[in-house]
Amino acid sequence: MSKHFTLGGRFSPGGPQVLRAVDGVSLAVARGETLGLVGESGCGKSTLGRCLVRLYDVSGGAVRFEGRDITHLGEGALRPLRPRLQMVFQDPSSSLNPRRRVADLITEPLRVHPGPGGRARGRGEIRDRLHDLMDLVGLAREHLDRYPHEFSGGQRQRIGIARALALEPSLIVADESVSALDVSVQAQIINLFMDLQDRLGITYLFIAHDLSVVRQISTRTAVMYLGSVVETGDTETLFHRPAHPYTEALLSAVPVAHAGEARRRRIVLKGDVPSPLNPPPGCRFHTRCPKAQERCRIEPPALRDVGDGRMAACHFPNE
Ligand code: SF4
Ligand code: MG
């Protein structure tokens, strides 16, 4: 799947440029699992997440949801699917209307989307559902008439999650959903996400630049670099034995999470991430890779099985 943006018009110097935000990514998220998606900012994680829930049209390839090709569905055909595909964003304050009370914010999706069979929901039904949702996300009912600014960051994220849950989604794309929170609050919200998955069977694509967050929540992890997925694997395998030099470098910057775990030698990557307007030929990582060889400058490596359930896009992966 690819998502390219055309920047500038025919009047811009040099004509329009194509930004390859997501370039030929193939990923599957199994029902009920959490796939963590990591990578530095600007690598295309958020774009990929938005394509998955069809907030963006894709430029090439396909998006399938529960066995159905939803790549080219128009807004009308997508509408009945929208409730099932939800996003939770980083900063709940920007997605919550400050002039509306919590009760209205959480129930808005219920009033916008009709219930099963296309019928409008009654007031009693909406109130019962509101109470269920507040209980699910751990918000006390006495808060119902308050406004978003009266809550802490963690509580606001609970409101955002309740809104996303209102229509019983089967997939939630969580895009940096805990990044703005203090570490202790992060842990509470991560626990909430996991608890909701146990109870409701929700599938997550959990996007984060913070690897320790992804490690806490994900069963599998995918690593992106410059619009491509460079490695996927079971989270613990990937954290213990990264196959791709980029994953290895990312992990070397993370403090040791568990007692007894060997400290990694810090790998400092040279240079900056190249522009997605003009990605390097061959392996996109070759300009910064400590293991790069001549072949890497010419031949793009395909994502392939490198053992232990890991897939890596590298000519010389770690065994
Ligand atoms: Fe590094 Fe070459 Fe592997 Fe790319 S293909 S990650 S440049 S060793
Ligand atoms: Mg992002």
From TrEMBL:
Membrane topology: Peripheral membrane protein
Domain ABC transporter: 5-251
UniProt xrefs under SUPFAM superfamilies: P-loop containing nucleoside triphosphate hydrolases
Source organism superkingdom: Bacteria
Biological process according to GO: peptide transport; transmembrane transport
Molecular functions per Gene Ontology: ATP binding; ATP hydrolysis activity
GO cellular component, one term: plasma membrane
InterPro entries from the UniProt entry: AAA+_ATPase, ABC_transp_ATP-bind, ABC_transporter-like_ATP-bd, ABC_transporter-like_CS, Oligopep_ABC_C, P-loop_NTPase
Keywords linked to the UniProt accession: ATP-binding, Nucleotide-binding, Transport
Membrane-spanning segments: none
PROSITE patterns: ABC_TRANSPORTER_1, ABC_TRANSPORTER_2
Subcellular location as annotated: Cell inner membrane
NCBIfam families: oligo_HPY
PANTHER family in the record: D,D-DIPEPTIDE TRANSPORT ATP-BINDING PROTEIN DDPF-RELATED (PTHR43776:SF7), TRANSPORT ATP-BINDING PROTEIN (PTHR43776)
Family classification: Belongs to the ABC transporter superfamily.
Name of the protein in question: ATP-binding cassette domain-containing protein
Organism: Lichenibacterium ramalinae
Source taxonomy: Bacteria, Pseudomonadati, Pseudomonadota, Alphaproteobacteria, Hyphomicrobiales
